[in-house]
Structure formats: structure tokens, C-alpha cells
Amino acid sequence: MRRTILTLASFAALIAASVPAAQAHPTNDRYCLQGRMWGYPGNCQFASYQQCQASASGTSAYCGINPRYAFSQPRYY
To answer: Given a cut of 90, is residue 53 above it in pLDDT?
Structure first.
């Protein structure tokens, strides 16, 4: 029984160590759909400005750069 628990714990630790850490700037949040309906920073799920503009088309919303992306400090390792 101890061996089974130790084996399962080892596999869980191995899987947890192999999962990559979350990126500081995912590539899908560079632009935000903003406006009265969305507030600030808005709906930040757009990878390109064109995608954001397509969603804003026909509404009173507009697109802006995500403040988390714009004002972040680059990290050098």
C-alpha cells in the first residue's frame, strides 16, 4: 500500500513539474475591447488589432492596448 501511494505521489510530482508555468504575457490579450459597455480595461481577449476591430464594428466600443501588456516591465533572466 505504501509503495502504491509513493508511486502515485511521484507521478503527480513529475506531472506537476513538467507543466509549463503561465506566461507573463499570453499572446491572446494584447488588445482590449473598451467602451461604456465594457469599462476599463475591457474585454482583453484579442491577439490582433483587426480581431478587436471586427468585434467593435457596429457598436460604440473601440479598441485599445491592454494595460497589463503595455505597462509591464520586461524581465531579463
So the answer is: yes
